[in-house]
Amino acid sequence: MYSGAAAAAGPPRRDFISVTLGPEEVVGVGGYNNSKAWRRRSCWRKWKQLSRLQRSVILFLFAFLAVCGVISYTSMGEAWKSITNKSLDDQRTEQEIPGLKLANPAVLPAPQKADANRGDYPELSPQKPPKPPHVRRGPSNLQIKAPRRDMRLKTRHDTIRTAEELVQADKAEKTEKSIISWRGAVIEPDQSTEPPSSKIKEPKKPSSVEAEDQKEPVPINERQLAVIEAFRHAWKGYKDFAWGHDELKPLSKSYSEWFGLGLTLIDALDTMWILGLKEEFEEARKWVANDLVFDKNVDVNLFESTIRILGGLLSTYHLSGDSLFLEKAKDIGNRLMPAFKTPSKIPYSDVNIGRGTAHPPRWTSDSTVAEVTSIQLEFRELSRLTGDEKFQKAVDEVMKHVHTLSGKNDGLVPMFINTNSGQFTHLGVYTLGARADSYYEYLLKQWIQGGKKENELLEDYMRAIEGVKKHLLQRSEPKKLTFVGELAHGHFSAKMDHLVCFLPGTLALGAHNGLAADHMKLAETLIETCYQMYAQVETGLSPEIVHFNLHAQKGHKDVEIKPADRHNLLRPETVESLFYMYRFTGDKKYQDWGWEILQNFNRYTRVPTGGYTSINNVQNPSNPEPRDKMESFFLGETLKYMFLLFSDDIDLINLDKYVFNTEAHPLPIWVPA
Ligand code: DMJ
């Protein structure tokens, strides 16, 4: 229709049609006006002409559309963000995991970094593509988060499967690969070390330890039951008189503190797990959860706290899968790091774990060589589990540095190293005993842990064993026992620490992993010597140090003991080596020797009210002079190795999957690339 105003103004222009109602809007007045102002005015008038109801409806519609618009925009944004993040994560995963793999792929999953890192493995995520914005309901973040919860469950499941697959793949790979035999040089598998399974009875039952790939549980035998009984007796003393403290003093029914960190309890955790002592384990776990606090103004020895506490927590984490132990391991690991802040990066011996300060002993700026080179298995594993390279970097640097140092004698190292200069000090004294021992042990074990790829470690190990053969081996009289003595400025001393008895086990482990045949031969002769260090003594227990007779004298045995050396601290080294020897040879004599030793511990060191004690005099069966102290390694190492020695289950801590740290805490071997 035409407006009346337009009609009055002149003849209607038929070729224009207006849909407006008001006279001013008639086309033709003043010509066609499509200016913004005109349109604004026109809309405004139209709006004013609407009823209140109409206006409310329109306003409501506008508001509704606006809200819809905002929601859709946010959803699209979130969806886009999630896609973008995913691809970034994909990139990061590709960069980070190989980075970690560089040195360290794992047999066991780098497990349960709880939730924190799940996002770093987007390939595991079942996240669905986001729905188109217009069909989304509810807050967008819910739709992003939900799959993460599913993923966690899936990851747990996948974790187990992946471990199984890796083990299978590993087995398959092993049968194909060329390996090196302890019968010599690099050879093919059919010439290799006879697998222990053919010598030791096949397991009939699965162990409680490696549930994933176990067959049937192997029944506990009489001797193992005796170890469990011994452990329970020791634990009773600790629980009654020293709970939560470092060491039990079983005679005075009290305790001693070293670091004030419940050392015995932590050292014993994985032993309880392996022995199947669930109740005791649960009780100890509660203490760790509620009472173990590292935020303490206390100086701890870097090496001792690494091998006992960090090592104990890491292995317990692996065996139990309980992330509490990993959290605690991270905590102590971080607190020990200040030790590496030295001019040379060779760590100080002591760290205050509350203050974050470190220092050398008061009288010197030297550290002990064995100490700075026997913390690597633990810190490397901590890096693998946390994805934080700093732990591994710090300890690898020490090994690389020591590798290049002069002052070695055919691979044998002095006992001290300076934290300022980074050079060996007190040159010219070489021993496989105190202050150097575990340097050699960790060369081999790091090489094994890392998948046998780190050649410098192997090189140093092989050279050192040649050094031992060249400079430190002698035979005693009358029994012609091969022993490892010491060299001081060119002079040979027929002194051998009980600590050296780790060596037969380490040599056997190397041979099992393909090293030279004569290493196994040497292991066999040395373990015989270590056993004689017990058998030739009145109590049947070894002293701390023996001197071997180099010349036959009437009425003299091979082993001489000086008054200052005739104590026994319940040490594990001989039992440790017996365990390796039995695993790799299946020769029952090793079990029998261990059984004798256990009986003698029971005879001379057991305290009726609970616990075992170190003794002062292994030569006096009627009064061995109890010292009133049970070292934490008696539970952490000695009884654990006893239990494993008496077991015929090669899967009870399978030595192709685990490597023991120097405190008998098993850590996983990383999968070879
Ligand atoms: C333990 O703490 C460790 O085995 C270390 O390597 C040597 N000393 C004791 C046991 O004798």
| Low confidence ranges | 1-39, 72-211
By DSSP, the count of extended strands is 20
Shape: globular
**What's the end-to-end separation, in Å?**
87 Å
Ligand catalogue: 1-deoxymannojirimycin
Radius of gyration: 36 Å
Structural class of the helices, strands and pairings?
mainly alpha
| Oligomer category | single chain
Instruction: Report helical residue fraction.
Output: 40-55%
Instruction: Look at the structure and give the mean pLDDT.
Output: 78
- What strand line-up does the widest sheet have? 5-6-7
> If helices are DSSP runs of H or I spanning 4 or more residues, what is the number of helices?
20
Strand content: 5-15%
Task: Let me know the largest β-sheet.
Answer: 3 strands, antiparallel
Q: What would you say about this model in short?
A:
One of its GO terms (biological process) is ERAD pathway. With 673 residues, this protein is mainly α.
Explained architecture:
The protein has a three-stranded antiparallel β-sheet. A three-stranded antiparallel β-sheet has the order 8-9-10. A three-stranded antiparallel β-sheet has the order 11-14-15, with no helix packed on it. The chain has helices at residues 4-9, 36-49, 52-103, 140-176, 196-199, 222-241, 263-275, 278-291, 302-320, 323-336, 369-372, 376-386, 390-404, 437-449, 455-472, 503-512, 517-535, 573-585, 588-604, 632-645; strands spanning 179-181, 184-187, 247-249, 254-256, 299-301, 350-352, 357-359, 366-368, 416-418, 424-425, 429-430, 473-475, 482-484, 486-488, 491-493, 495-497, 545-548, 559-560, 658-660, 666-668. It is mainly alpha-helical and 673 residues long. It is globular and about 130 Å long.
